[in-house]
UniProtKB/TrEMBL annotation:
A Gene Ontology cellular-component term: cytoplasm
Domain annotation FAD dependent oxidoreductase: ranges: 88-448
Gene3D superfamilies xrefs: D-Amino Acid Oxidase, subunit A, domain 2, FAD/NAD(P)-binding domain
Disordered, as annotated region: 1-62
Biological source species: Streptomyces liliiviolaceus
Low complexity: compositionally biased ranges: 7-26
Protein name, entry field: FAD-dependent oxidoreductase
Pro residues bias: start-end ranges: 27-54
Amino acid sequence: MSSTENADSASDPDSASDPDSASGPDRTPPAPYAPPRPRTPPLPQPPPQPPRAPGAPRTTVNGGISFWYAEEGLPAPREPLQGDANADVVIVGGGYTGLWTAYYLKKAAPFLRITVLEQKFCGYGASGRNGGWLYNGIAGRDRYARLHGHEAAVRLQEAMNATVAEVVRVAGEEGIEADVHRGGVLEVAYTPAQLARLKAFHETELSYGEKDRELYGARETADRVRVADAVGSTWTPHGARLHPVKLLKGLAAAVEALGVTIHESTPVTEIRPKHAVTPYGTVRAPYVLRCTEGFTASLKGHRRTWLPMNSSMIATEPLTAAQWESVGWEGRETLGDMAHAYMYAQRTADGRIALGGRGVPYRFGSRTDNDGRTQASTVEALHGLLLRLFPQLSGIAVDHAWSGVLGVPRDWCASVTLDRATGLGWAGGYVGSGVATANLAARTLRDLVQRDSGQSGETDLTTLPWVEHKVRKWEPEPFRWLGVHGMYATYRAADRREVTTRAAQSSRIARFADRVAGR
Ligand SMILES: Cc1cc2nc3c(=O)[nH]c(=O)nc-3n(C[C@H](O)[C@H](O)[C@H](O)COP(=O)(O)OP(=O)(O)OC[C@H]3O[C@@H](n4cnc5c(N)ncnc54)[C@H](O)[C@@H]3O)c2cc1C
């Protein structure tokens, strides 16, 4: 294992055994109407990776938001809000959801005055840290089928399939070079129990209309990617690998070019009808759209709305040609597995493997990480998982490790809402599937605002089953922390048992954990 270096000066983040030691954002709201600050100095850049002498250990950068910024550099901050302002639509959060919403609304109605308020910089959240799986998965589809009928869920799935193509289309139209490779999504099984789940999953996806999905045996799987012990896989064409930050930066630039105002370093402390309140002034607008995903708990009144679930990633050093020869993966599919605590990976454009998984799932009190730093134990676990999948890469160094937060609603269902009475809207709760979903959510928010303001009627999107879905809040602490940690401890135990026993059935304890968690 390579040594670990922090990209910032803060103390170690929390560990599972010490939930209270978590470092998180400063929750003390600054005094209202404090004098506007000058431009916030940029965050320290992660140190460049020095060339490695043969045999010398390589340093793992931990944090610095994510590996994607080590390549791209952290952006120069845009101006914060400078006092009270008015707009037609104010969007809180400069991730994919907020920026896509601004993009589609401004395109549809160029006369609208749209302001985006971002607490740090656009792409500070999951949109600047994710695994770059642009794919057609959406959290909650099966529950929506139960609530609204199978046909409604098929429509939702078809909208997601089309969304993958839509993101690629707009990126092309706007000249956003985001290392997009449309290799589809390959999910592999490497235990008999995983294979049983894989087959069931494959059948389910076919039933939602994915006629172009394929099921592969061990040999066909190895022809694509040589994952140790793989016994089968399922592949869908509805997926692409991309560079998250290149997409994000290009999108932010496109939004600005359309005439949308973006204020960074501007935390919104409270959202109420027609008001987004910040320490530097209040933006008043008939529509206030909350696009804050895993950070939602920091807003007044939202502590238990969506749980900030951690996901952590590592990026290896670039593989040599011989190493790639041993791995295969020429189709550059996004790669996942069927473990209960699943992993996701991509072959990056510069020839590395970026791989993610759960790590410490949740920080006590809905706290978030410190600029992407993750626990040393998580880095070790992900490195171990990488070598379990690709033992032929033994000795490979990890160049970067980081983490971020997803938004998880109590029923694990993504949703989009615009409340007609108040003009308050929101989208998110994507769990781990937000790169494409945020785009669909944004187009839906556009249609909802247009419908509400009388510019259009119902559309194919406003009638999708995830629109205006209601969900209860999470339990108060310590039950929230105990529940999530218990659930993931159970998943890990189930995964271990399935590997050691080679049982053909999914572990019953994992099914029990699913039920208790409300999934
Ligand atoms: C490590 C990791 C890997 C992932 N991998 C994948 C993947 O491969 N494929 C996939 O589909 N999904 C993946 N996801 C999920 C996906 O990245 C997210 O669902 C998606 O980016 C959410 O976009 P968003 O704009 O809703 O939220 P975010 O990108 O989190 O943006 C929210 C923004 O709001 C800002 N903000 C928050 N609170 C405030 C406030 N009070 N005032 C002002 N601004 C505020 C934040 O700073 C942030 O910039 C991953 C997530 C993580 C963390």
